[in-house]
Amino acid sequence: MTKPKKITTKERIKNTAIELFNIQDSLSITTNHIAKAAGISAGNLYYHYRNKEEIIREIYAEMSERIESLKSFEKMITSPNPLNVLDESFDHYGDLFWEYRFLMRDAPVLMALDSELKRAFVANQEKRITQIAGVIKFLISEEILQNIAKDEIPLRAKLYWFVTAYWQVFASMDGDVSRESIRETKEAMFKIHIAPFLSEKGRGMMEMFTLNAGGEIPVPL
Fold first, then answer.
1. pLDDT by residue (tens digit) across 110-168?
2. How many helices and strands (H and E) does the chain possess?
3. Span 61-103, pLDDT tens digits
4. 86 φ/ψ angles, rounded to the nearest 5 degrees
């Protein structure tokens, strides 16, 4: 039997910070709160991280790496049913968004306070928008989507990114990020931004993978 991997102090600090940031607003949590909850001294925390901003930047990098490791865009363009991959990808994204929900909720404020985090976010945003535009072009070329003008694609890519990246900021205005608000993001994308533009081929793909999964069709067909 293999022994479970021993968690390092640095990992414990990061995991504790995620837990505290998710429960409360990230602005009110200090390094002293994190150190106390992790069961270490403040000095031990500062041995691993210079400040709270550095912890948040590392958490953001971790989330980005995990999203990248899903290789959703690559799988989509090589799958016999790209819409199935898109559906599954939203579920995976939803799990990660929930795990790191404070980032989805507090991103604008955190970026305003940390220019280094903002640079990382903007670079990632540009990359994602380019990938989304590529997927839209692919789905059009495969005659899965229709009635989308070529000059609309860059704007649509930005809009799709905006919905997925900032929906939780909106949701937290009168409550908090929840599993339901994360699910709404997927529902908005499929019902409003995808379903109206599905070709007959696209509708068939959607119907096929939904029936195979034994669930309800997520868009009006």
1. 999 999 999 999 999 999 999 999 999 999 999 999 999 999 999 999 999 999 988 88
2. 11, 0
3. 999 999 999 999 899 989 999 999 999 999 999 999 999 999 9
4. -60, -45
Cα–Cα nearest to 205, from 54, 34, 85, 49:
85
Amino acid at 35: A
Residue with token string 């976010």: 121
CA distances from 5 to 2, 37, 112 (A): 9, 21, 37
Identify which has the larger pLDDT, 212 or 146.
Answer: 146
For the chain, how big is the Rg over CA atoms in Å? 20
In whole angstroms, what is the distance from residue 87 CA to residue 149 CA?
24
| 3-class secondary-structure state, position 107 | helix
Specify which residues 145 forms β-bridges with: 198
Q: Which residue(s) pair with 198 in the sheet?
A: 145
3-state SS assignment for residue 198 = strand
Does residue 209 sit in helix, strand or coil? helix
To 10 degrees, the CA torsion angle through 55, 58, 59, 60?
120
Buried-state track 11-47, b at ≥16 Cβ within 10 A, e below 16: ebbbebbbebbbeeebeebebebbbeebebeeeebee
The number of beta carbons lying within 10 Å of the beta carbon of residue 153 is 16
**CA atoms of 138 and 2, how far apart (whole Å):** 44
